[in-house]
Amino acid sequence: MDIDVRGPRFGAAVTTVVLLAVLALDSGYLLAFQTLCFALGAAGGVGRSPYGRLFRTLVRPRLGPATEFEAPAPPRFAQAVGLGFALLGLLGYFVGPQWLAYTATGAALAAAFLNAAFGYCLGCEAYLLLRRVGPARG
């Protein structure tokens, strides 16, 4: 079942704000919260992440009907990519080196911002590229 494209974009906007706060406050604990959000989105799909639930219960009822839909697999893959960067960031915050925390968090922030501001999902594009170059299934 396809999903409303506005949901992942809303989640990316919230993620952008959270990751900005991580860097501004230099908070590994806030990054741990975002890591959990990525993990839930990767495991259950974006609709089951905290931001997906927030969109579904508070935002979507105030919007008109969806006009654009997308397959759930690419955004779910994007959540897994975000999870990878967040885990690297956590490693940097709690074990070191500090530059790893900032670089990994910054990379996740850049990807979230591109999706939130422009509707361009890097993780989704990577998913589609991997599907094209991957081995043929028969």
Detailed description of the structure:
By secondary structure, the protein is mostly helical. Helices cover 74% and strands 3% of the residues. Helix 1 (6-25) packs antiparallel against helix 2 and helix 2 (28-44) runs antiparallel to helix 4 (73-94). It is globular and about 45 Å long. The longest helix has 22 residues, at 73-94. Strands 1-2 form a two-stranded antiparallel ribbon.
Keywords, please?
3% strand; mainly alpha; 138 residues; 74% helix; two-stranded antiparallel ribbon; single chain; globular; 6 helices
Topology, element by element:
Layout: E1 3-4, H1 6-25, H2 28-44, H3 50-59, E2 69-70, H4 73-94, H5 98-118, H6 122-133
Antiparallel strand pairs: 1-2
Helix pairs in contact: 1-2, 1-3, 1-5, 2-4, 4-5, 4-6
